[in-house]
Amino acid sequence: MKSDTKYERARSRDIPTAARMIALAFAGTLDGVTKWLTDNGIENIRVVREGRQIPACLRRISMGQFFGGRSVPLVGIAGVATAPELRGKGHARRMMESCVREMREEGAALGGLYASTQALYRQSGFEQAGHRFITRIPLVRLLGGDKSRQVIVLDESDHNRVKACYTRFASSFNGLLDRTDYVWKRIREMRDSRFQGFGVTDSAGDLSGYLYLAQKRDDTTGRQELHLSDLAFTSESAGRQLIAFLADFEPMGDFVQFGGGPMHPLLTLLPQQRYEVKLKDFWMLRIVDVVRAFEARGYSAASRGSVVLSVRDRLVPENEGRWRIEFERGRAKVHRNKGARGAAIECDIRGLAPLYSGLYSPRQAAILGLCSGEPEALDILGGALGGGTPWMTDHY
Ligand SMILES: CC(C)(COP(=O)(O)OP(=O)(O)OC[C@H]1O[C@@H](n2cnc3c(N)ncnc32)[C@H](O)[C@@H]1OP(=O)(O)O)[C@@H](O)C(=O)NCCC(=O)NCCS
Question: Among 35, 188, 203, 204, which residue's Cβ finds the most Cβ atoms within 10 Å?
Fold first, then answer.
């Protein structure tokens, strides 16, 4: 960065400039973007200040991400934008480098984002680590539901039990967010859509599944589509109740759509594969702190043994060097490796992201040049990290 260039927290007077940049970047309205910037805490907005000019900005979202059943601290990055008249001069690249350094200094384990251009984020150590698909099911195909209809309407007072139900569901898969308020607000309201919550209960009256839906009406036919901002359940019978609940919209509706993995668990409960699953986006991760990231996540309880991981990280030298990772009873301990003992894996910090998330096994990642190592070490790490393809319901 030039000597008069700073990466810092936005001040209130920077908001109009940031709003203009973000509105132009994402084709939003100035009013809508200003609300987005101010409603969610301007302390989370960062700007690049160059003298009197603000060429670029971003938003940070503190949350967690489930891996191996445990929540790992994650800083999500959104709203990355450079003013159109100042693009192509390296502002976004340098801003992302400062952002990664800041996350490290604060003690974050992971950084995450959805990328419009992966090339930009790869330069600061992010790599594809999971995906988000949109599933679209004809309502007439929602068969196999449980019609016992113990359906309740959810309101604000149900938030804690909705959260508990989501956490049970989300922590059973790799990659789902451990949501904080920013994401929860978007479940209920997103741009001009408001989503209504409905839950299903088990025989004890506890919430065992829920969904949030918005109806999109086609004014020419009068028929509707259901868009879900969230869908979670903790038992087969709850999943089947949600199927029956959605199927009840069929007389006036054609489709339901929702975000998730390539194989949302609800699909397994359907008798036929008559739906469309389309890739929406890959999400990327940056391992900000190797020790914290590996010690925070969970692993297969059956995994035992250790590997030596040799990491290169141009931006965060604290991550560099040889680490010994010891797996025991579903947890890992990470130490500096002294000496040359042990089967070793080598990787750049970027290559570590899809290994960590389980998007690729270490053997698969080696084919892509994301890491290299002795087969024994690759298998030990792969055995510990495996656990299904990483996905996410939310876009942030
Ligand atoms: C994407 C964006 C932030 C880049 O800002 P910028 O300051 O012009 O980017 P930089 O000059 O720092 O470029 C850094 C790298 O990003 C990538 N990049 C930048 N602009 C790109 C473009 N239009 N298409 C593809 N890659 C691009 C390149 O890899 C570039 O590195 P290189 O110059 O060595 O090839 C800017 O174009 C923008 O605001 N776009 C609209 C909003 C958006 O897409 N935001 C990102 C959402 S995740």
Answer: 188
117 alpha carbon – ligand 1 mean position (Å):
7
Query: Which residue minimizes the CA distance to atom 39 of ligand 1?
Result: 81
* Residues at CB less than 6 angstroms from ligand 1: 25, 56, 80-82, 87-93, 115-117, 119-120
Rg of the chain (C-alpha set): 22
Find the 166 Cα to ligand 1 centroid distance in Å: 35
Query: Could you confirm whether domain 289-385 is CATH 3.30.1050.10?
Result: yes
Place of tokens 């789902």: 176
Q: What is the pLDDT of residues 104-127, one digit of tens each?
A: 999 999 999 999 999 999 999 999
**Architecture of domain 133-282 in CATH?**
3-Layer(aba) Sandwich (3.40)
- Mean pLDDT taken over the chain: 95
Q: Which is it for strands 177-178 and 53-67: parallel, antiparallel or unpaired? A: antiparallel
Interatomic CA distance for residues 352 and 293, integer angstroms: 11
CATH code for 5-125? Answer: 3.40.630.30
d(CA 355, CA 347): 10
What does the pLDDT look like over 136-155, one tens digit per residue?
999 999 999 998 889 999 99
CA distance 179 to 77: 14
Domains 5-125 and 133-282 agree in fold: yes
* Statement: residue 275 has pLDDT above 90: yes
Distance CA 128, CA 118 (A): 8
Mutate which of 82, 97, 122, 124 for ligand 1? The one with the most ligand atoms within 8 Å of its CB, which is 82
Q: Is 306 exposed, middle or buried (0-12, 13-18, 19+ CB in 10 A)?
A: buried
Dihedrals φ, ψ of 100, to 5°?
Answer: -65, -45
